[in-house]
Amino acid sequence: MGQANGSRGRPRSVDRRSAANGRAKRGRKALLVAVEGIDGAGKTTLLALLADGLASRGWRVGRWKEPSDSRLGLEARRISGASPAAAALLFTLDRGASSPDLQALRARSDVVLSDRSYFSTLAYQGSALSGRERQTLERFQASVAQPPDLVLWLALSPAVALGRVARRGLLRSPLERRTILERTARAYARYAREERSRFVRLDARQDPERVAARALEAVLSRLSPSSTAPSSPRGRSSDPPPSRGGARRAKGRARL
Q1: Is the model's pTM score more than 0.85?
Q2: For the segment 150-181, what is each residue's pLDDT rounded down to a tens digit?
Q3: What structural domains and CATH numbers belong to the chain?
């Protein structure tokens, strides 16, 4: 599974009472939005623009990233080529262990933006498995993971994605190979067809601001019509936990 780095900032001011009223009107936990796509598709850029767009409209935005334990993620990526089933298990174990932290974040947010979800595991590792093994993995994910309410899929050809990765000037991960990205892109397309009510396809070739505008429209359309954004002109965004220990220490308080 690919992984993009999150960014941290300082908390912005927010009318907490107004934000709490907004959550109460919705009467449910935060909308969980996952941003998906192959490496180089532009997830980091979209997440930043989308968080700013929602926060500027007064929504309390939580930020999440998978895997939450970066050390586990590195090990899973390292072994993914040789043993995709073992890598999928590591990602899923991390997902289950961090679930209480994600639940806490959703309880204090209006919208949670997640850098990847279990669909990354299904697309990257699951696409390397046999049909029966993939079905087992899908059932396992359903029993462990919190399913996203909305998946923003950044669709991009592997050739273009690899060109972007090369321009970063960084070492490629074991998963940033054309054959793997082609297989993964086909898997994302299949899940988008099977889960039409959950997936929104975004053309990642377009200008980032245009992609973000389409994504913002999709997110706002999923928010309950009965909910109203907090009256504060600026919302607050919480970063994903940097590690398992960091997530536990940060539990119970919102961060930007």
Answers
A1: no
A2: 999 999 999 999 999 888 876 566 677 889 99
A3: 16-250 (3.40.50.300)
